[in-house]
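ingest -> validate -> predict -> emit
validate: passed (alphabet ok, no gaps, 139 aa)
predict: started
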Amino acid sequence: MALALGAVLPMQAAINARLAKNAGSPVMSAFVSFAVGTIALMLFLLVSGQFKLGFISSPSPWWIWTGGLLGTFFVAGIVVLLPRLGVVLSFSLVLAGQMFVAILFDQFGWLGVALKEISAGKIIGVVLLIVGVVLIRKY
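emit:
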C-alpha cells in the first residue's frame, strides 16, 4: 500500500502541474484538486454511511486541524517545483525531507506517534537518500 501511495504522488503532481498551466496558477490548481477530493470523500462517506460530525465536539489538541493546511502547502508547492526541477529531482528532494523529519518523529514521538529509536542503519539510509538526491541533481 505504501508503495502504491508513493507511486500515486508523482502522477498527482504531474496532473496538478498541467492543471496549474491551464488555470494559470498553482494555488488555483491546488484549490481545484482539494475541492474535487473533498467532494469525492464526501460522496464516499455518504454512500458508506460513515458521514458523522460528532467527533468535532470531543476534546482534541488544536493541531489535529492543521493536516489540510499541510496538504495544501505540499500540493501547491510541488506544482511550482515540478516544472522547474522535473519529477525525479522534485520527488527525490521530497523523499529526503520526509525521511529526515520521519526519523525525528520516530525518535521523539512528536504529535503522539510511537517512539522508534534512531539507529545507525536509519541514519545511513537517510544519508544514502541524500547522496542519491545529489547524484540525481548532478546527472
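The CA atoms of residues 22 and 102 lie 35 Å apart.
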